[in-house]
């Protein structure tokens, strides 16, 4: 039996500045090595949920357990990968990745090995001395992924990590993510607005409903790991999730002044 790595139990969140609940009664269990994608309308609380799992935002009530331990602050077990790459423009690719290990107790040689390994995993071994400004957006995102990998976290939390990239760079990075998940057995939580990305990457897709944010439906993707976007099975999931996504929220009221 695969052990669960994340347990979210009856989570509620209301930000102090408002009295409206953002998340209500969210419970979910995530197994080690699983890729779980979250889909939901803008504002339904996806980033909030990821921030809470990462320990950056406190729960109003309920619990989040990582490996059985209650999350109260950010830990080295989980790393958040943002849409903005967050690279330091005055540091080379190598030193940007090394930056993630600055406070670690690893030896200098171990840090060096981790940096090289992380950059090799994302195919950037030949750009160690480049500055971020000399890289394409996709390459900068790969540096950010390498930086997360160098920490060797158990969990990577990704908040729309590829939203700003062109289709083919996105496809390339999606394949990198599946490779890393397979090789390193990392657990990956991915927030995305892209249904295809969710089906291509995830073992499970969780659709959230808004106002307040809650789990609406869970779809297990029973496709082999090597996925074909053009296959009938893929198309079946595309239709299923598209329909569920639309049912998860009321369409916006549009007023016509004729
Ligand atoms: N720090 C904050 N203080 C007060 N309210 C917040 C804060 N952060 C988010 N919210 C509110 O919480 C709700 C959920 O926001 P969140 O960013 O989690 O949504 P989201 O699902 O990630 O949306 P998007 O898809 O647009 O990124 C929104 O109504 C937002 O205005
Ligand atoms: Mg968000």
Automatic annotation (TrEMBL):
Domain ABC transporter: 6-235
Alphabetical UniProt keywords: ATP-binding, Nucleotide-binding, Transport
A single MF term (Gene Ontology): ATP hydrolysis activity
Pfam families reported for this sequence: ABC_tran
Recorded superkingdom: Bacteria
InterPro entries, A to Z: AAA+_ATPase, ABC_transporter-like_ATP-bd, ABC_transporter-like_CS, ABC_transporter_ATP-bind, P-loop_NTPase
Keyword Nucleotide-binding carried by entry: yes
Gene3D superfamilies recorded: P-loop containing nucleotide triphosphate hydrolases
PANTHER family: ALIPHATIC SULFONATES IMPORT ATP-BINDING PROTEIN SSUB, TAURINE IMPORT ATP-BINDING PROTEIN-RELATED
UniProt protein name: ABC transporter
UniProt organism field: Caryophanon latum
